[in-house]
Write a structure and sequence with these properties.
Oligomer: single chain
Helix content: 25-40%
Mean pLDDT: 86
CATH class of the largest domain: Alpha Beta
Number of strands: 21
Largest sheet: 9 strands, mixed
Structural class: alpha/beta
CATH superfamily of the largest domain: P-loop containing nucleotide triphosphate hydrolases
Strand content: 15-25%
Bound molecules: thymidine-5'-diphosphate, magnesium ion
């Protein structure tokens, strides 16, 4: 008697020896499908090996460039042969554009790349290629959407890189269920991943994101791949951030920054300039802060607004940072600087959609709060970095030298840093702060003209 194929619930992933209309495990209706491929694809162990560590060649994992400096950075140094990357993001963010441009760059370098674009027609793809100025006639593209066809093409062309755009529209003819269903996603991705590993071919799976920010389909896709990269929007329509949420080959939280232009995506290597708005005059309630995004320093702008609370409990609201951290800093300033912030609604924003939970942000928030509350301007290029303790003491910031290098590259000054780190980072325009109350010394003198104009109005 032949071996029975299991039936799998697409809702809870439980397997059963027979079909049920209602899943006995999660009670979902019509969610159980036969998993025909399970038995036929049972692992024979033909590709397995047992060897001494010394016999292994680390050179085999040498990565190569994708053609984008920023994509290489997000991938942890470049494309690793045999690696599997999941590229997620909202529709229209630029996943297909990135993949197409990467495929063209790789083909130019004589690295055979197969781009499966089952989601769009080949005409649409050609139009995009023309828009991006892609002239690589030898780039291999296909609208194939079945695992079996992909496998045949891989056997024929032996690509170094395979792109499936998107994994949600790929299916296997051996399986029941429509493309994008849990059974299909699980099996097709598992087969493709195995193919990538055995052929030492880098595999890129494009995935859609649901409203709540998850890759649509089973979470297990994220577990199965080596790298998960999410494409995100920023404050500007043009600037896109590719963030590594998982990476077996490099640090997580690494970010690649791109500019979407009329001719496709471009590396934004000097990204800080995109986030720093050049100011001509001193401003109130706003400072620059050298953040660390992954392993890259990025100068962002921190703004604060204090406004008298009209009724109820005063609000403490942070955009890009924690509300509780804003509340804590307001209390520290009230206690140790003596400013009555308890009567104020407080809003803090990290401009440009940058998200930062780093405690080194404290001092920048504190100074912009003090400036806003006192309505006194700050030097227009002031940069602030350091953690603030509960007794108002300024504590060390991690990776300070990288942050300072970025701030100095943009010729920003003065730069306020924790006093304890001043000896290691001496430079003209860099000043050490011991206590939060010392920040008062950086407020510019009240403008006489402004004052007299205001008093005239009263
Ligand atoms: P696309 O790569 O199709 O996004 P995804 O695959 O993530 O759904 O990106 C499409 C968007 O990018 C669309 O809004 C148009 C814009 N775009 C440009 O601004 N410039 C370009 O050169 C290209 C190709 C697209
Ligand atoms: Mg697309």
């Amino acid at each position: 008697m032949g071996k029975k194929t299991p039936f799998i619930c697409q809702s809870c992933h439980e397997s059963f020896p027979k079909w049920f209309g209602k899943c006995p495990n999660c009670n979902a209706w019509h969610s159980i499908h036969e998993n025909k491929s399970e038995s036929s694809n049972s692992k024979t162990g033909a590709n397995f090996q047992l060897t001494a560590l010394g016999n292994l060649d680390s050179e085999a994992n040498t990565s190569f460039s994708s053609g984008f400096i920023e994509l290489d950075r997000a991938l942890g140094g470049g494309i690793v042969p045999g690696s599997v990357s999941l590229i997620g993001g909202e529709p229209g963010i630029g996943k297909s554009t990135l993949m197409l441009q990467m495929a063209a760059a790789l083909t130019k370098k004589k690295l055979t790349t197969l781009y499966f674009t089952a989601e769009e027609s080949l005409t649409q793809l050609k139009r995009r290629a023309e828009r991006c100025g892609i002239t690589s006639d030898s780039l291999l593209v296909s609208n194939g959407s079945t695992l079996e066809y992909v496998r045949t093409m891989v056997e024929t062309h032996h690509p170094k890189v395979l792109i499936c755009d998107s994994i949600q529209v790929m299916s296997s003819t051996n399986l029941s269920g429509i493309a994008g269903s849990i059974t299909q996603l699980r099996e097709v991705s598992a087969e493709l991943i195995q193919l990538a590993k055995t052929k030492q071919m880098a595999l890129f799976l494009v995935g859609h994101i649901t409203k709540d920010g998850q890759i649509a389909g089973p979470k297990l896709l994220e577990h199965a791949v080596d790298t998960v990269l999410y494409f995100e929007h920023t404050h500007s329509d043009q600037i896109r951030v590719l963030r590594a949420h998982k990476n077996r080959f490099g640090p997580t939280f690494e970010v690649g920054i791109f500019e979407m232009q009329g001719q496709g995506l471009k590396d934004a290597t000097d990204a800080s300039t995109l986030f720093v708005h050049p100011y001509e005059h001193p401003r109130i309630g706003s400072v620059f802060y050298p953040s660390i995004q992954g392993s890259r320093p990025l100068i962002s702008e921190v703004q604060a607004l204090c406004s008298p609370c009209q009724f109820g409990a005063p609000r403490r609201q942070g955009l890009g940072t924690d509300n509780s951290r804003v509340a804590l800093l307001a209390a520290i300033i009230e206690k140790h600087v003596g400013l009555k912030l308890s009567s104020q609604d407080i809003f803090v924003n990290i401009v440009g959609g940058v998200v930062d939970k780093d405690p080194a942000l404290d001092l920048a928030v504190a100074l912009s709060l003090i400036s806003s509350f006192m309505q006194r301007s700050l030097p227009k290029d002031i940069v602030v970095c350091g953690e603030c303790g509960l007794s108002g003491e300024v504590r060390r910031a991690a990776q300070l030298s990288a942050r300072l290098k970025e701030a100095r590259a943009l010729a920003l000054s003065p730069i306020l840093i924790p006093h304890a780190q001043l000896k290691e980072n001496p430079a003209k325009g860099t000043l050490g702060i011991r206590h939060v109350s010392e920040l008062l010394g950086f407020l510019e003198a009240p403008k006489k003209t402004l004052r007299s104009a205001a008093s005239k109005r009263i």
